[in-house]
Backbone:
């Protein structure tokens, strides 16, 4: 019988400890992110910030001498408007593409489309912002005869293209998770592919498709550089898609560099960070619960 | 050729219902195809247009010269090198943690509420907005850890941000190694770690590599997380010296440079931002293409 050397046993348990530590790293980092963002903003959050003004006012004058106001309602409206427009485009198109990839094509075509959508996901957000600035802006001005093309429409279209890959890949997973026996049963009854998709697959995969849409929302809400460059940077509640807006993320990105460390303005930007963190956390959590819901069934 | 007798009594003739079904089927297929194409075509148009606009400026000189004249002339050497520093350093930090985290999730952890929480944390980490990562990096590394605005602080921020990419693809790669491989190894007396080290990791190296490559592409393109943790608007460095930056220096970065010259600096010649965008995009897409090639190659070579 071969016995292990003492050093080997020690090494084995040491490496196991390291692996376990790395294993919980994700939890540590998520809590760390919340802790450090909260820590920077906590002082002003509990002493000084008027929460009713914060959520209820559209006045955002963080650097004003006499009339300082920290109302993020208009910024929330900006984020919401761009996100909703993006989702109105990206969800149907993303799920349509997922259906096409998973049910209507095969072989080489499927691989090509999947790779292209993967590459679409790889385009950095600052490049998207640049495209919004230099390609979409003049295009929108010319097509709609508006004075400025940096608006909800521009940001929404760009965000739609940015969040489509997530929706396609999660949506495709959801469709793939529907057992083949469902498809076979439907086809054996003589239905066409479209009838099978519409009557069998969509109802069976609806939770996964919902999760796909939610992850798209999470992606769109958190996107920073593209909306910073493409939505025009005007703090107001939009009344049409041709209005310029400013989102929560863009505000932080644009103003953090100017705010003095520790000042009220600086701390408010961290409080916006807490708000963004909470929104995406809830969206991801719900998406996860929805997906687990299917597995449990 | 259909026998005339067959069609005469209507046996093989399409009924109105069949025709309608075939029609809706064809319509459905083309609608879905159109939807997919509408997502794919912009990519091609955009890349083509950017290259077309940038063409006059693209040259080796553009890559190897510093920005000059208030960033209105010259090349992208300093930002390019800065991006390389950030990418390599964040890769060095994120890869071991990410791979070992995936090893834990796939090889050590049992199915339990705890594993579920870890998995949920990975998903949530991937979903945290990039600007929140920036706030975190500023609060934790720049201020709390007193690293200052530096390459190391920015790389740490990027590493944490891109960790989920590595964890997810490594986990998938590990799960693809058949359990029989592990059992065979345990049966000859190997420990858990020996099995992982000599059997599981070598057999999943391709998938791990894909994840690492995707991490590189992600880290190279990010702007928001480095804006406040280590990247600066302008910093001239020695041209041609690949070791021009130190770990605690601030640096320029391609993504930030593109943002700066397209929004913050007036009167930049049009080709300059296009050139920068193409260099950045080219880098990211080339890295992604590499990941795809690795994946296809390994799938073809797979032995089990």
Residues:
């Amino acid at each position: 019988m071969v016995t292990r050397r003492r050093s080997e046993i020690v090494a084995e348990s040491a490496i196991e400890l390291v692996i376990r530590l790395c294993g919980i790293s994700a939890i540590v980092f998520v809590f760390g992110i919340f802790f450090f963002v909260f820590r920077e903003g906590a002082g002003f959050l509990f002493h000084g910030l008027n929460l009713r003004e914060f959520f209820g006012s559209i006045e955002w004058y963080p650097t004003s001498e006499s009339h300082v106001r920290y109302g993020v309602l208009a910024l929330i409206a900006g984020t919401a408007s761009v996100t909703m427009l993006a989702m109105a485009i990206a969800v149907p198109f993303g799920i349509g593409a997922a259906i096409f990839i998973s049910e209507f094509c095969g072989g080489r075509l499927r691989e090509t489309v999947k790779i292209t959508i993967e590459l679409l996901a790889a385009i950095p957000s600052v490049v998207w912002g640049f495209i919004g600035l230099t390609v979409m802006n003049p295009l929108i001005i010319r097509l709609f005869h508006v004075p400025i093309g940096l608006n909800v429409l521009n940001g929404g279209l760009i965000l739609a293209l940015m969040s489509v890959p997530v929706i396609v890949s999660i949506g495709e997973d959801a469709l793939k998770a529907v057992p083949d026996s469902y498809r076979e049963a439907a086809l054996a009854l003589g239905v066409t592919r479209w009838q099978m998709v519409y009557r069998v697959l969509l109802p069976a995969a609806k939770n996964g498709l919902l999760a796909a849409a939610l992850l798209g929302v999470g992606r769109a809400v958190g996107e920073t550089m593209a909306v910073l460059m493409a939505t025009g940077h005007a703090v107001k509640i939009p009344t049409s898609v041709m209005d310029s807006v400013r989102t929560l993320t863009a505000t932080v990105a644009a103003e953090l560099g100017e705010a003095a460390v520790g000042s009220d303005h600086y701390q408010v930007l961290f409080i916006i960070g807490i708000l963004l963190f909470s929104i995406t956390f809830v969206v991801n959590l719900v998406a996860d619960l929805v997906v687990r819901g299917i597995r449990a069934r | 050729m259909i026998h005339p007798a067959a069609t005469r009594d209507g046996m093989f003739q399409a009924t109105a219902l069949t025709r309608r079904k075939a029609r809706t089927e064809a319509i459905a297929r083309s609608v879905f195809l159109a939807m997919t194409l509408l997502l794919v075509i912009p990519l091609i148009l955009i890349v083509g247009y950017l290259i077309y606009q940038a063409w006059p400026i693209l040259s080796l000189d553009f890559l190897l010269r510093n920005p000059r004249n208030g960033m209105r002339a010259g090349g992208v050497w300093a930002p390019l090198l800065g991006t390389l520093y950030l990418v390599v350093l964040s890769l060095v930090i994120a890869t071991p943690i990410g791979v070992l985290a995936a090893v834990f999730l796939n090889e050590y952890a049992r199915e339990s509420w705890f594993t579920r929480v870890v998995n949920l944390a990975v998903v949530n980490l991937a979903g945290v907005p990039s600007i929140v990562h920036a706030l975190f990096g500023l609060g934790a590394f720049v201020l709390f850890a007193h690293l200052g605005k530096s390459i190391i602080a920015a790389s740490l921020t990027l590493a944490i941000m891109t960790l989920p990419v590595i964890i997810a693809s490594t986990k998938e790669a590990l799960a693809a190694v058949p359990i029989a491989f592990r059992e065979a190894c345990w049966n000859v007396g190997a420990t858990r770690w020996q099995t992982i080290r000599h059997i599981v990791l070598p057999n999943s190296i391709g998938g791990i590599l894909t994840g690492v490559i995707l991490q590189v592409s992600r880290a190279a393109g990010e702007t928001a997380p480095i804006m406040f943790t280590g990247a600066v608007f302008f910093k001239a460095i020695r041209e041609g010296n690949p070791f021009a930056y130190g770990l605690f220096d601030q640096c320029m970065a391609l993504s930030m440079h593109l943002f700066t010259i397209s929004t913050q600096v007036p009167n930049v010649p049009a080709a300059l931002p296009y050139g920068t965008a193409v260099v950045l995009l080219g880098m990211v897409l080339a890295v992604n293409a590499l990941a795809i090639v690795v994946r296809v190659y390994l799938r073809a070579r797979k032995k089990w």
Q: What stands out?
A: Strands of chain B lie at 67-68, 73-74. The longest strand of chain B covers residues 67-68.
